[in-house]
Design goal:
This protein is of the alpha/beta class. 38% of the residues lie in helices and 16% in strands. It binds beta-D-ribofuranose and calcium ion.
């Protein structure tokens, strides 16, 4: 059983990551959802996390608002992918309004308080947005932060081109200085970057599987993913959008879906065309510390079957 804090910026694929985590109580106990600014500004990522909980009538999991901007740079958002709300749907019908509120405590305080209340190596931090909240917590109290068992993150691209610039993946690009601090923290990192998420394509068949998975939330989830598919299908010329963020949770549930390789990964923070790139040393040419377990491939049918099976639990 993994005790997790899920730090995210919902966002369509973040929403699926939340649903996957909360439908897997045997494998995952979600102690809280913390939100950062990313796909949309923080007021909207917070509202969207609450809306996803409202969709499944969950009043239990607490939501904490975190940092409204990256550590150093100006916030870059992705309304072009996720729509103005951050969770636009294909039909234009919005997700239900929140049935709960955010907690008063700041996300960074919640992360540190939770880590301090638990033993070392008990809490897994899952991050599916820019790493601002995690880096702020690490900076504020490195000793407590290092009690985390590991960090499972969606971000970066070791060998794949970028998706926001030719070099960089969105989450790392939005806050490369936060990413640098986390990648240098010596906490064990499992990185699900574009190398593997670009294998997880929401084809029409898989969309149909998700739509039929659950009477209560299948059609709404498919409606969300229909919108998500629209931009990326055109951009990539593929048969659907890549479903990034749930790879993190899927790995916690079924690690056998993914193949990992440990290597040194550094973050480029110098300005220029490679700003925000994750530089991965596949051949160990630098002999630098192998600080990251990089997901290098994944079984996409098993991944989507898992999602559909877990969504069916909400029927
Ligand atoms: C990442 O960027 C966001 O738009 C998605 O939610 C995902 O976390 C993919 O690059
Ligand atoms: Ca995200």
């Amino acid at each position: 059983m993994h005790k997790i804090i899920l730090d995210c910026d919902p966002g369509h694929d973040d929403a699926i990551a939340i649903l996957l985590a909360l439908s897997s109580p045997k494998e995952i106990e979600c102690l809280g959802i913390t939100v950062c600014a990313g796909n949309v500004p923080i007021e909207l990522t917070a509202k969207n996390a609450l809306r996803v909980l409202s969709l499944i009538e969950n009043r239990i999991v607490p939501v904490f608002k975190g940092c409204p901007k990256p550590l150093v740079t100006k916030l870059v958002t992705a309304e072009h992918v996720h729509g103005e709300s951050g969770l636009d749907t294909g039909s234009g019908v919005s997700l239900p309004e929140p049935i709960s509120n955010c907690e008063k405590q700041h996300a960074v305080e919640f992360i540190l308080e939770t880590l301090s209340k638990h033993s070392s190596n008990e809490i897994t931090l899952v991050a599916t947005g820019p790493l601002t909240n995690l880096a702020a917590a690490y900076t504020l109290d490195p000793k407590t932060f290092k009690k985390a068992k590991n960090i499972i993150l969606m971000g970066g691209a070791g060998f794949e081109p970028g998706n926001i610039t030719p070099a960089a993946e969105f989450n790392i690009f939005v806050d490369p200085f936060a990413a640098k601090s986390i990648f240098e923290s010596e906490i064990e990192i499992f990185m699900f970057g574009l190398d593997v998420t670009h294998q997880m394509i929401i084809t029409p068949k898989r969309l149909g599987l998700i739509e039929k998975s659950s009477n209560s939330i299948g059609p709404t989830t498919a409606d969300l993913l229909t919108f998500f598919n629209s931009y990326d299908t055109k951009k990539y010329g593929w048969n659907g959008a890549p479903l990034h963020d749930p790879c993190t949770i899927a790995w916690l549930i079924k690690p056998e879906i993914f193949q990992m390789k440990k290597m040194s990964v550094e973050i480029e923070t110098n300005s220029g065309p490679a700003f925000g790139r994750t530089i991965a040393d596949w051949f160990n040419v630098t002999d630098k510390n192998k600080n990251v377990n990089v997901a290098i491939s994944g079984k996409s049918d098993q991944f989507f079957d898992l999602i559909a099976e877990r969504l069916s639990r909400f029927s």
